[in-house]
Amino acid sequence: MGIGMRLFSKAAGLSEYRATGAVERGGFFPNHYDLAAIALVLAGLVLVVAGGRQMTAPMTGLESSPISLDPANLPAYALRTTLRMFAGVIASLVFTFIFATLAAKNRKAELVIIPTLDILQSIPVLGFLTFTVTFFLGLFPSSQLGAELAVIFAIFTAQAWNMAFSFYQSLRSVPRDLEDVTSSFHMSGWQRFWRLEVPFATPGLVWNTMLSMSGAWFFIVASEAISVGDTSIKLPGIGTYLSLAIDQADVRAVLYAVVAMAIVILLYDQFIFRPIVAWADKFRVETTASQARPRSWVYDLARRTRLVHTMTEPVGAALGALAMARLPKLSPTSPSKPGTRPAASVLGKALDLLWVAIVLAAAAWGGWTIYIYVRETLTLDDAASALGLASITLLRVISLIALSTLIWVPVGVWVGLRPAWTERIQPLAQFLAAFPANVLYPIAVIGIVRFNLDPNIWLTFLIMLGAQWYILFNVIAGASVFPNDLKEAAAVLRLRSWYWWRRVILPGIFPYYVTGALTASGGAWNASIVAEIVKWGDTTLKAKGIGAYIAQATTDGDYPRVVLGITAMSIFVIVFNRLVWRKLYAFAAERTRLD
Amino acid sequence: MLMNAQTVSRAPLIEVKGLRHLYHKGSTPDLVVLDGVEMTLREGEIVGLLGRSGSGKSTLLRSIAGLIQPTSGTITFGGAPVVGCSEGVAMVFQSFALFPWLTVLENVEIGLEARGVLPAERRKSALAAIDLIGLDGFENAYPKELSGGMRQRVGLARALVVHPKVLLMDEPFSALDVLTAETLRTDLIDLWSEGRMPIKSILMVTHNIEEAVLMCDRVLVFSSNPGRIDADIKIELPRPRSRTEPAFRELVDRVYAIMTKRPSKPTREGVFPGTGLGMALKYVSSNTLAGLLETVDASPYNGKADLPHLAQGLQMEIDDLFPIAETLQLLRFAEMEEGDIRLTPDGRRFARGEVDERKRLFGEHLVTYVPIAGHIRRVLDERPSHHAPATRFQEELEDYMSPEFAGDTLHAVVAWGRFGEVFAYDDQTGTFSLENPT
């Protein structure tokens, strides 16, 4: 049920052959696969170098060569956008390895990190941007690097929490007997980390990275061209190209941007996403019979090339040696001592309490600081109006999820029960989910302007433009794995129409639906910041809602209102998650699981 | 036979003295998992730890491996106390515990790698171990491509390659099908008898009596609650042993008799009657109970059966059969003694009864002989609403046992109460009531 998981699965007939492993075939001369692989690797290197050099160009260079709508520039812009994306992924990975590991290994760190991540997850991604832009620009006043870092940080906030959670959960659920094996072989903590814990966590981490990455395209497009008060960023990239096209009301340029974005996502899926997923599959600890293995022609190609193998083997061996390096033991891997626990736990509990008290005090101080800061300019009325606006947006999110459910659940079930259709539609749905919907906004806005429609109603649809596909592809996934014997039993019992829906298929796909709807709801809240206020040329359309409120405050550089708006939205998201989604999840896990 | 246990004068490899293991959680009283365990493992012998699930035999094995630390008592390996995992032991796991992302060769190499053995050398040793254990040709396969038997061979090779003195095996064959397990047992014993393995002795946990008699030089029988060593039986049959030999059958019968003898004094907790609310119960389906009653009632048993014979006829292992028989004993539908099971008059009546008769009998016995069931029923009768939340009983049980055991016990009582129509239970609200849906 992944975004792009089975994107264009019939990519190449190459995958028919099982990789035979280049080692056995011997010989040193490159074979024909090597040529293709080399071309790909070199092209990748050239692109990284070219893009990287531009990134550190001084700020003045920006003004002398402004963004142009010439489509010939689009490949270069797309490259810059993609590089930012990868910089964000790398930053998120570093964050994940440090903080998730810390949380899993150290109980005091866990007490702080996990709740913090939970909250950070609920804060709208674009909310961070307002603050980080000024921060990073102040850090590097004379270079473009500050602006780049601000955008990369936005991507980071769209990915890191999710990835860290996944990694933490995997670290906490490493199978007990494998742990026993590592202790019985006297592995050090370092060796165990690289030999057991990281491999075990890899499939989940890869999966979550890819999921967040798909969502991050949206934010990168939204953050490349942004104004916070007097500070304005216009970094060369697809997002900036698009915003210029909007300013100039250039329909043709918008279409170019759509095409460029589609190509970028396609390439990223084929060359990055699928090879990594195919590779990560071997780390899966299989408990049930395996479904179809993820395949990637790029991965198969790389595995079959002799030269790539020869080149990567020393690197792999070196990394392996590093992973198994016998570092001096920091903490001896002492087994648990049930006997000594009572005495230790009294002291441990006291320390925990102290630690919690310190953390709470720090949090209270932080809350007070925010309060003081906001109080200077804002009154209680402002807070009330922010909550009111948040309610309006909540109404939007709920009604749109209801609408998407009504449309896409039947469609998804229909498609999912027909394997031939699933094969064709599923990649498309996943592609659409990864496609940043804000690139399509101008097209919708043109329609609203043309027909003079009420923005309060019609802009609502924009927030689900991208998010609805999560519901569709999750329902398709759920319906396609619905057990055949249950299908047959329902047919034999002659269950028909509404009864069949209510008793058979809806409970069957429910866990998948909840996953899809939860993702869609998160996406919708985030999208509201860019979707409730849109522009086309000189026309600005605005809907009432907390998203528009935050966006407006950001443009005005009104920080207290940004803080207030983000707080209101975060509270709504958190409460909604706790009251609705968590309950539905628990229900799905307990009642309708099919295993 | 290069190595054998005939000579008692052999040096002790592992000595366990006064070993005690407490399960301790929150404010609940300690659950004694192991108590006063003494044992010695000498060079050249295969010793089996035999007992029912929950008798602490795995806990003993893990303590010897250094994976867990006992509450009190000492374990010495070659004269030195065991702290953490000792270098001289290697372990084979019931679940194989192979790294799915490593090939067979890499899995076998990993123990050497952790010790910093150089690549060329460890490859040589690993290939030798793979060769010894009959895995040639599978070096580059991943565990998921292998059958269960092949996977356990990898587990064995991985343990042997580090040249341990003692091989610890935790129910190594119980996840395998009957035929595969037998092949692996035979191969292992052949290697042992021919002295081709680099090890000095083997300590294995099993719940299969025949397996223990087939493979071991000595069998230590565990009793449950708390776990103790009940008997130390020498098996002096010459190898290769045959399951059909009269001497073999006799030994199997003897072990059965030891394992089914009535406890001399009432135990504090456990599945035996007369212990009040603190009795931990394990769920056994009412269909299974009825099935066993019917089988023993019918010919050729006619109400009284020899347990080894019965187990063989039903193709069950003691771990499957004992919980059923014990539940029947608890409900006073049957009695166990000296390796026999005998039905009570009510047991025979149940076996011949129709559904309604069975339900009535079962309900009566449940309320009378299972204290927690009687307790729930009384509470429901006394309350005007005839409703009570499950959490209440869960908490009461937790005064005597761990939350996990309390949960299991409640689960069993719910299922039996439903079958005997003693009370109803609503899983969604978590409440007991007297209203049976009509």
Q: Strands of the biggest beta sheet of chain B: in what spatial order?
A: 6-7-8-3-9-10
Order of helices and strands of chain A: HHHHHHHHHEEHHHHHHHHHHHHHEEHH
Percentage of residues in DSSP E strands of chain A? under 5%
Strand order of the largest sheet of chain A: 1-2
Question: What would you call the shape of chain A?
Answer: globular
Q: How large is the radius of gyration of chain B?
A: 24 Å
Q: What's the alpha carbon Rg of chain A, rounded to whole Å? A: 26 Å
Q: How many alpha or pi helices of chain B? A: 15
Low-pLDDT residue intervals, each spanning 5 or more residues of chain B? 1-8, 264-274
Largest interface: A-B, 36 and 37 residues
End-to-end span of chain A in angstroms?
Answer: 17 Å
Helix content of chain A: over 70%
The helix-and-strand class of chain A reads mainly alpha
For the biggest sheet of chain A, the summary is: 2 strands, antiparallel
Task: Note the quaternary state here.
Answer: heterodimer
- The average pLDDT of chain B is 85
Number of helices of chain A: 24
Helix content of chain B: 40-55%
Q: Give the termini separation of chain B.
A: 70 Å
Compute the number of strand runs of chain A: 4
User: Low-confidence parts of chain A lasting 5 or more residues at pLDDT below 50?
Assistant: 1-30, 329-343
